[in-house]
Specification:
5-stranded mixed β-sheet, 7-stranded mixed β-sheet, 329 residues, disordered C terminus, alpha/beta, Metallo-beta-lactamase, Chain A
């Protein structure tokens, strides 16, 4: 057990990681959620993880802040399924406002699906299986509160923090920045592992990387967003995927990400490489078609992923059968 420096009477399980003073994270399979103490008696949840993870998130909150102490608010960096999966279940326990950028509202109020995932971008198993990821909207109309852009984008319930619009991975994607301590919660504007590779995710290989390729719909906007975050000069960065990175390593790798974005982050081919999808406050308005060559690749990827899944399931069943036979004989 690791002792929480701000509250020495609270023991923090090692399954939670500290980002900075008053900021903690938890990895849920391959995605992170964050909890930020905003005053001695208040805290905010950033993102809501995968489906069926509400219990784990509530247990983390109880370990850090005590029982029956809901967050002041929930802030979403964006509404993709791995960042809102437990949200509706959490709201049954915590009836609190959920803040999101106005361009994310169509995907949080049941009005629009996101652009389809692109399994043709390559990079590993996460990419190849992304065609199975749910892109349909959820509906939290009763709780959602619009974050509209204004002069400084301050968050009144998070003193010292402001939100930074960082579109490209999602239309209304935002990052959060603590100006005093230069702590950045980047969401998926950039990440700190090679999220396309299941092996890198499992090993938590720590490297600043572009946004997840298989769900990014506008590469020009994504590059502009990363450039914007570099200009903030963060000292600590916590992202939606991967472990936090600090100091000179963060500065060096984030600058390299910007300088080599087209060569290393933008996929060699893919649905949204030649032309982005288009969205507005009503949701997705246009999705580029798949050129014939990419259609062929997509078909091959789908068949390969399905075959791999079949083999894994078959091996698992055989392993279970072998164990059962071993018990009998």
């Amino acid at each position: 057990m690791a002792t929480n420096n701000e509250n020495k009477n609270i023991l923090m399980p090692r399954k939670y990681f500290k980002v900075a003073n008053g900021i903690w994270g938890m990895k849920i399979l391959f995605v992170n959620i964050y909890m930020i103490r905003t005053s001695p008696d208040e805290w905010v949840l950033v993102d809501a993880g995968l489906p069926k993870s509400a219990g784990r998130i509530i247990k983390m909150a109880e370990a850090l802040f005590g029982v029956n102490k809901p967050p002041k608010a929930i802030v979403l960096t964006h509404g993709h399924f791995d960042h809102t999966g437990a949200l509706q279940e959490l709201l049954k326990t915590w009836d609190v406002p959920v803040y999101a950028h106005r361009l994310e509202l169509p995907y949080l109020t049941g009005k629009s699906s996101y652009p389809p995932a692109d399994p043709t971008v390559g990079g590993g198993l996460m990419s190849y299986t992304s065609f199975m990821f749910p892109m349909t909207p959820i509906d939290i109309t009763r709780n959602v509160v619009e974050l509209d852009e204004h002069m400084d984008n301050r968050l009144p319930f998070m003193p010292g923090w402001r939100f930074v619009p960082t579109p490209g991975h999602a239309p209304g994607h935002i990052s959060l920045f603590d100006e005093k301590h230069h702590v950045l919660i980047a969401g998926d504007a950039f990440v700190t592992t090679k999220i396309e590779s299941a092996i890198s995710v499992a090993r938590q290989t720590k490297v600043v990387s572009g946004p997840p390729k298989f769900l990014t719909y506008d590469w020009d906007a994504s590059k502009n967003s990363v450039q914007k975050l570099l200009m903030l000069e963060p000292k600590v960065a916590a992202t939606g995927h991967g472990m936090p990175i600090q100091g000179a390593k963060l500065t060096r790798q984030l600058k390299h990400l910007v300088d080599a974005f087209e060569q290393e982050s933008v996929p060699a081919f893919g649905r949204y490489v030649p032309e982005p999808a288009r969205a507005n406050a009503q949701g997705v308005q246009y999705v580029p078609g798949l050129p014939f060559g990419i259609k062929a690749v997509a078909a091959l990827v789908t068949i390969t992923a399905a075959a791999a899944a079949f083999v894994l399931i078959k091996k698992r069943r055989q392993s279970l059968l072998d164990r059962a036979l071993g018990l009998v004989f």
